[in-house]
Amino acid sequence: NATCDNNPQDYLCDCKDQGYEGPACEYKSCPTGVAWFDEASKRGAGYHRDGTECSNAGVCDRTTGKCVCDSLFEGDACQKMACAKVNGFTCGDDSYNGDMGECLTMERLAAYSKKNGQLLRDTDNVTYSEAWDAQKIQTCHCPVAWSVRNDNFTHPTYRGPYAFTYTDSAGYDCSKANCPKGHDPRIRGGVNTVQRVNCTTTRGTFRLIFRGNATALLTSNTTAAHLVEELEALWTIGEVAVEFRRYGVALGTDAEACAELGTAIHVEFLTEFGEMPPMRAVVVSGFEGTGDALTVETMQAGTKKNLECSARGVCDRDVGVCECQTGHLSSD
Protein backbone atom coordinates (compact mmCIF):
# COMPACT_ATOMS: atom_id res chain seq x y z
CA ASN A 1 0.00 0.00 0.00
CA ALA A 2 2.97 2.35 0.23
CA THR A 3 6.60 3.09 -0.51
CA CYS A 4 9.37 3.94 1.93
CA ASP A 5 11.24 7.20 1.39
CA ASN A 6 14.50 5.50 2.56
CA ASN A 7 15.54 8.66 4.35
CA PRO A 8 17.88 7.60 7.19
CA GLN A 9 16.57 10.45 9.32
CA ASP A 10 12.99 9.16 9.47
CA TYR A 11 12.29 6.26 7.05
CA LEU A 12 8.68 7.39 6.58
CA CYS A 13 6.06 5.46 4.62
CA ASP A 14 4.42 7.36 1.78
CA CYS A 15 0.85 6.07 1.34
CA LYS A 16 -1.44 9.11 1.43
CA ASP A 17 -2.37 8.86 -2.26
CA GLN A 18 -3.31 5.19 -1.81
CA GLY A 19 -5.95 5.96 0.83
CA TYR A 20 -3.89 5.01 3.87
CA GLU A 21 -1.96 6.87 6.55
CA GLY A 22 -0.08 6.35 9.79
CA PRO A 23 3.58 5.49 10.51
CA ALA A 24 3.18 2.07 8.91
CA CYS A 25 0.21 2.95 6.68
CA GLU A 26 -1.96 0.94 9.03
CA TYR A 27 -4.93 3.33 9.00
CA LYS A 28 -7.41 4.06 6.25
CA SER A 29 -7.95 7.67 5.19
CA CYS A 30 -11.43 9.19 4.92
CA PRO A 31 -12.94 11.34 2.13
CA THR A 32 -12.25 15.07 2.23
CA GLY A 33 -14.26 18.19 1.40
CA VAL A 34 -14.49 21.93 1.96
CA ALA A 35 -14.37 22.58 5.71
CA TRP A 36 -17.57 23.70 7.41
CA PHE A 37 -15.66 25.14 10.36
CA ASP A 38 -12.15 26.55 10.14
CA GLU A 39 -9.78 29.15 11.52
CA ALA A 40 -9.59 32.52 9.82
CA SER A 41 -6.74 32.83 7.34
CA LYS A 42 -6.01 36.39 8.41
CA ARG A 43 -7.50 39.17 10.49
CA GLY A 44 -10.88 40.29 9.17
CA ALA A 45 -11.22 37.48 6.62
CA GLY A 46 -12.12 33.83 6.66
CA TYR A 47 -11.77 30.90 4.33
CA HIS A 48 -12.88 27.30 4.06
CA ARG A 49 -10.08 24.90 3.24
CA ASP A 50 -10.69 22.25 0.64
CA GLY A 51 -9.30 18.78 1.24
CA THR A 52 -10.39 18.71 4.89
CA GLU A 53 -11.08 15.23 6.22
CA CYS A 54 -14.81 14.70 6.80
CA SER A 55 -15.20 18.45 6.13
CA ASN A 56 -14.61 19.11 9.84
CA ALA A 57 -18.17 17.91 10.49
CA GLY A 58 -17.50 14.30 11.41
CA VAL A 59 -14.99 11.76 12.69
CA CYS A 60 -13.02 9.37 10.51
CA ASP A 61 -13.39 5.66 11.26
CA ARG A 62 -9.83 4.52 10.53
CA THR A 63 -10.81 0.86 10.27
CA THR A 64 -13.30 1.43 7.43
CA GLY A 65 -12.13 4.71 5.92
CA LYS A 66 -15.64 6.14 6.25
CA CYS A 67 -16.76 9.36 7.92
CA VAL A 68 -19.12 9.20 10.89
CA CYS A 69 -20.96 12.50 10.41
CA ASP A 70 -22.46 14.74 13.05
CA SER A 71 -26.26 14.49 13.10
CA LEU A 72 -26.77 17.66 11.04
CA PHE A 73 -24.53 16.59 8.16
CA GLU A 74 -24.41 13.86 5.54
CA GLY A 75 -22.47 12.67 2.49
CA ASP A 76 -19.33 10.58 2.06
CA ALA A 77 -17.25 13.48 3.39
CA CYS A 78 -20.01 15.03 5.57
CA GLN A 79 -19.95 17.74 2.90
CA LYS A 80 -23.70 18.43 2.87
CA MET A 81 -26.09 19.78 5.47
CA ALA A 82 -28.79 17.19 6.08
CA CYS A 83 -32.45 18.05 5.52
CA ALA A 84 -34.98 17.62 8.32
CA LYS A 85 -36.87 14.35 8.72
CA VAL A 86 -40.33 13.60 10.10
CA ASN A 87 -41.07 10.01 11.18
CA GLY A 88 -38.13 8.83 9.13
CA PHE A 89 -39.23 10.67 5.97
CA THR A 90 -37.06 13.43 4.55
CA CYS A 91 -38.87 16.77 4.30
CA GLY A 92 -42.19 15.77 5.82
CA ASP A 93 -44.28 12.65 6.33
CA ASP A 94 -47.00 12.01 3.76
CA SER A 95 -48.72 8.68 4.31
CA TYR A 96 -50.00 8.81 0.73
CA ASN A 97 -46.78 9.40 -1.19
CA GLY A 98 -43.82 9.05 1.17
CA ASP A 99 -41.64 12.15 1.25
CA MET A 100 -43.64 15.39 1.08
CA GLY A 101 -40.91 17.75 -0.08
CA GLU A 102 -37.59 17.47 -1.85
CA CYS A 103 -34.16 18.01 -0.31
CA LEU A 104 -32.27 20.45 -2.55
CA THR A 105 -28.97 22.32 -2.47
CA MET A 106 -28.87 26.11 -2.58
CA GLU A 107 -27.71 25.87 -6.19
CA ARG A 108 -30.82 23.90 -7.19
CA LEU A 109 -33.14 25.99 -5.02
CA ALA A 110 -32.14 29.11 -6.95
CA ALA A 111 -34.19 27.79 -9.88
CA TYR A 112 -37.31 27.99 -7.68
CA SER A 113 -36.82 31.60 -6.54
CA LYS A 114 -40.07 33.52 -6.84
CA LYS A 115 -41.26 37.09 -6.74
CA ASN A 116 -44.98 37.60 -6.28
CA GLY A 117 -45.67 33.97 -7.17
CA GLN A 118 -43.73 34.21 -10.46
CA LEU A 119 -40.62 32.09 -10.95
CA LEU A 120 -37.72 34.47 -11.52
CA ARG A 121 -36.16 32.01 -13.95
CA ASP A 122 -39.00 32.86 -16.36
CA THR A 123 -37.75 36.44 -16.67
CA ASP A 124 -34.25 36.58 -15.13
CA ASN A 125 -31.17 34.40 -15.07
CA VAL A 126 -31.17 33.47 -11.37
CA THR A 127 -28.23 31.31 -10.31
CA TYR A 128 -26.33 30.50 -7.13
CA SER A 129 -23.34 28.37 -8.03
CA GLU A 130 -20.14 30.29 -7.27
CA ALA A 131 -20.39 30.58 -3.47
CA TRP A 132 -18.54 28.00 -1.37
CA ASP A 133 -21.78 26.65 0.12
CA ALA A 134 -23.79 26.41 -3.13
CA GLN A 135 -23.66 22.61 -3.16
CA LYS A 136 -23.24 22.12 0.59
CA ILE A 137 -26.23 23.74 2.30
CA GLN A 138 -29.46 21.84 1.70
CA THR A 139 -33.01 22.56 2.77
CA CYS A 140 -36.51 21.30 2.06
CA HIS A 141 -38.35 22.54 -1.01
CA CYS A 142 -42.00 22.03 -0.10
CA PRO A 143 -44.67 21.25 -2.72
CA VAL A 144 -47.15 23.95 -3.64
CA ALA A 145 -50.93 23.62 -3.69
CA TRP A 146 -52.35 20.90 -5.89
CA SER A 147 -55.59 21.27 -7.82
CA VAL A 148 -58.01 18.45 -8.55
CA ARG A 149 -58.31 19.97 -12.02
CA ASN A 150 -54.65 19.38 -12.82
CA ASP A 151 -54.09 15.64 -13.04
CA ASN A 152 -50.43 16.07 -14.00
CA PHE A 153 -49.23 17.70 -10.76
CA THR A 154 -47.25 15.08 -8.86
CA HIS A 155 -47.50 16.16 -5.21
CA PRO A 156 -51.10 16.19 -3.94
CA THR A 157 -51.11 17.71 -0.45
CA TYR A 158 -54.43 16.50 0.95
CA ARG A 159 -55.70 18.24 4.09
CA GLY A 160 -59.36 17.19 3.89
CA PRO A 161 -62.13 16.70 4.30
CA TYR A 162 -62.42 20.49 4.16
CA ALA A 163 -63.02 23.15 1.57
CA PHE A 164 -59.68 24.11 0.02
CA THR A 165 -58.35 20.69 1.00
CA TYR A 166 -55.31 21.10 -1.23
CA THR A 167 -52.95 23.68 0.30
CA ASP A 168 -49.25 24.49 0.32
CA SER A 169 -46.93 22.53 2.59
CA ALA A 170 -44.71 24.74 4.72
CA GLY A 171 -42.13 24.77 7.50
CA TYR A 172 -38.46 23.80 7.55
CA ASP A 173 -39.45 20.12 7.26
CA CYS A 174 -42.64 20.52 5.12
CA SER A 175 -44.73 19.06 7.94
CA LYS A 176 -46.90 22.17 8.31
CA ALA A 177 -49.40 23.79 5.97
CA ASN A 178 -50.31 27.27 4.83
CA CYS A 179 -53.94 28.35 4.93
CA PRO A 180 -56.14 29.82 2.18
CA LYS A 181 -55.91 33.57 1.57
CA GLY A 182 -58.55 36.15 0.79
CA HIS A 183 -59.61 39.77 1.02
CA ASP A 184 -60.47 41.16 4.47
CA PRO A 185 -64.30 41.32 4.44
CA ARG A 186 -64.27 44.33 6.76
CA ILE A 187 -62.37 46.44 4.25
CA ARG A 188 -65.00 48.01 2.03
CA GLY A 189 -64.50 48.59 -1.67
CA GLY A 190 -61.53 47.40 -3.63
CA VAL A 191 -61.29 46.27 -7.25
CA ASN A 192 -60.05 43.13 -8.97
CA THR A 193 -57.05 42.95 -11.26
CA VAL A 194 -57.93 43.15 -14.96
CA GLN A 195 -55.41 42.22 -17.64
CA ARG A 196 -55.88 42.61 -21.39
CA VAL A 197 -54.55 40.29 -24.08
CA ASN A 198 -54.43 41.99 -27.48
CA CYS A 199 -54.62 39.48 -30.32
CA THR A 200 -54.35 40.61 -33.94
CA THR A 201 -54.28 37.79 -36.49
CA THR A 202 -56.59 35.60 -38.53
CA ARG A 203 -54.50 32.49 -38.16
CA GLY A 204 -52.36 31.24 -35.31
CA THR A 205 -52.06 29.33 -32.04
CA PHE A 206 -50.78 30.50 -28.67
CA ARG A 207 -50.67 29.82 -24.93
CA LEU A 208 -51.23 32.03 -21.91
CA ILE A 209 -48.93 31.54 -18.92
CA PHE A 210 -49.67 32.67 -15.37
CA ARG A 211 -47.19 32.15 -12.54
CA GLY A 212 -45.35 29.47 -14.47
CA ASN A 213 -48.38 27.46 -15.60
CA ALA A 214 -49.42 27.37 -19.25
CA THR A 215 -52.84 26.80 -20.76
CA ALA A 216 -53.54 24.16 -23.34
CA LEU A 217 -53.06 25.25 -26.95
CA LEU A 218 -55.39 28.14 -27.84
CA THR A 219 -56.41 29.02 -31.39
CA SER A 220 -57.36 32.29 -33.02
CA ASN A 221 -61.04 31.23 -32.99
CA THR A 222 -61.15 30.34 -29.28
CA THR A 223 -64.33 31.65 -27.63
CA ALA A 224 -64.57 33.50 -24.32
CA ALA A 225 -66.31 30.54 -22.63
CA HIS A 226 -63.56 28.15 -23.74
CA LEU A 227 -60.85 30.55 -22.58
CA VAL A 228 -62.45 30.68 -19.12
CA GLU A 229 -62.29 26.88 -18.94
CA GLU A 230 -58.63 26.80 -19.95
CA LEU A 231 -57.56 29.53 -17.52
CA GLU A 232 -59.46 28.03 -14.60
CA ALA A 233 -57.84 24.66 -15.35
CA LEU A 234 -54.52 26.15 -14.19
CA TRP A 235 -53.79 25.42 -10.53
CA THR A 236 -52.51 28.99 -10.11
CA ILE A 237 -55.92 30.45 -11.00
CA GLY A 238 -59.24 30.00 -9.22
CA GLU A 239 -61.95 31.88 -11.10
CA VAL A 240 -61.86 34.49 -13.87
CA ALA A 241 -64.33 36.45 -15.98
CA VAL A 242 -63.47 36.93 -19.67
CA GLU A 243 -64.92 39.42 -22.13
CA PHE A 244 -63.92 40.09 -25.76
CA ARG A 245 -64.00 43.71 -26.92
CA ARG A 246 -63.18 45.76 -30.01
CA TYR A 247 -62.88 49.55 -29.96
CA GLY A 248 -64.22 49.45 -26.39
CA VAL A 249 -67.44 47.63 -27.36
CA ALA A 250 -68.23 44.18 -25.94
CA LEU A 251 -68.53 41.44 -28.58
CA GLY A 252 -71.05 38.60 -28.68
CA THR A 253 -70.59 35.17 -27.10
CA ASP A 254 -69.63 33.65 -30.46
CA ALA A 255 -66.79 36.14 -31.03
CA GLU A 256 -63.29 34.81 -31.65
CA ALA A 257 -60.19 35.52 -29.57
CA CYS A 258 -58.25 36.98 -32.51
CA ALA A 259 -59.22 38.98 -35.58
CA GLU A 260 -57.66 40.97 -38.40
CA LEU A 261 -58.87 44.18 -36.74
CA GLY A 262 -57.70 42.92 -33.34
CA THR A 263 -59.54 41.60 -30.31
CA ALA A 264 -59.05 42.92 -26.78
CA ILE A 265 -59.42 39.97 -24.39
CA HIS A 266 -60.26 41.34 -20.93
CA VAL A 267 -59.49 38.88 -18.11
CA GLU A 268 -60.73 39.80 -14.63
CA PHE A 269 -59.23 37.75 -11.77
CA LEU A 270 -62.01 37.00 -9.27
CA THR A 271 -60.09 34.96 -6.67
CA GLU A 272 -56.45 36.11 -6.97
CA PHE A 273 -55.78 39.24 -4.92
CA GLY A 274 -52.82 41.40 -3.98
CA GLU A 275 -49.99 42.37 -6.31
CA MET A 276 -50.02 40.12 -9.36
CA PRO A 277 -47.58 39.52 -12.22
CA PRO A 278 -48.91 39.92 -15.76
CA MET A 279 -49.76 36.86 -17.79
CA ARG A 280 -47.36 35.97 -20.58
CA ALA A 281 -48.61 35.27 -24.10
CA VAL A 282 -46.47 32.90 -26.17
CA VAL A 283 -46.98 32.37 -29.91
CA VAL A 284 -46.84 28.70 -30.93
CA SER A 285 -47.61 29.01 -34.64
CA GLY A 286 -48.86 31.56 -37.17
CA PHE A 287 -48.91 35.31 -36.45
CA GLU A 288 -46.82 35.82 -39.59
CA GLY A 289 -48.96 38.40 -41.36
CA THR A 290 -48.22 42.11 -41.53
CA GLY A 291 -49.52 43.71 -38.36
CA ASP A 292 -50.06 40.41 -36.52
CA ALA A 293 -49.35 40.80 -32.80
CA LEU A 294 -49.96 39.20 -29.41
CA THR A 295 -49.40 41.33 -26.30
CA VAL A 296 -50.49 41.51 -22.65
CA GLU A 297 -50.99 44.57 -20.45
CA THR A 298 -52.51 45.33 -17.05
CA MET A 299 -55.62 47.47 -17.45
CA GLN A 300 -56.52 47.69 -13.77
CA ALA A 301 -54.29 46.89 -10.82
CA GLY A 302 -56.23 45.14 -8.07
CA THR A 303 -56.54 46.82 -4.69
CA LYS A 304 -57.97 43.92 -2.68
CA LYS A 305 -55.70 42.34 -0.07
CA ASN A 306 -54.38 38.79 -0.19
CA LEU A 307 -54.30 37.88 3.51
CA GLU A 308 -54.09 34.50 5.18
CA CYS A 309 -57.50 33.59 6.60
CA SER A 310 -58.63 36.98 5.23
CA ALA A 311 -57.17 38.51 8.43
CA ARG A 312 -60.29 37.24 10.26
CA GLY A 313 -58.98 33.99 11.66
CA VAL A 314 -55.95 32.03 12.83
CA CYS A 315 -54.27 29.39 10.68
CA ASP A 316 -54.07 25.89 12.16
CA ARG A 317 -50.81 24.89 10.50
CA ASP A 318 -51.18 21.23 11.37
CA VAL A 319 -54.05 20.87 8.90
CA GLY A 320 -53.95 24.09 6.84
CA VAL A 321 -57.41 25.22 7.94
CA CYS A 322 -58.50 28.64 9.24
CA GLU A 323 -60.06 28.92 12.69
CA CYS A 324 -62.36 31.87 12.03
CA GLN A 325 -63.21 34.67 14.41
CA THR A 326 -66.75 34.89 15.75
CA GLY A 327 -69.05 36.22 13.05
CA HIS A 328 -66.92 34.97 10.14
CA LEU A 329 -67.30 31.73 8.24
CA SER A 330 -66.15 29.88 5.08
CA SER A 331 -62.86 28.23 4.22
CA ASP A 332 -60.78 31.40 4.15
From TrEMBL:
Gene3D superfamilies: Laminin. InterPro entries: EGF, EGF-like_comC, EGF-type_Asp/Asn_hydroxyl_site, EGF_extracell. Pfam families: EGF_2. The keyword Amino-acid biosynthesis does not apply. This is EGF-like domain-containing protein. It comes from the Eukaryota. Residues 1-26 form the EGF-like domain. The keyword Transcription regulation does not apply. Keywords: Disulfide bond, EGF-like domain.
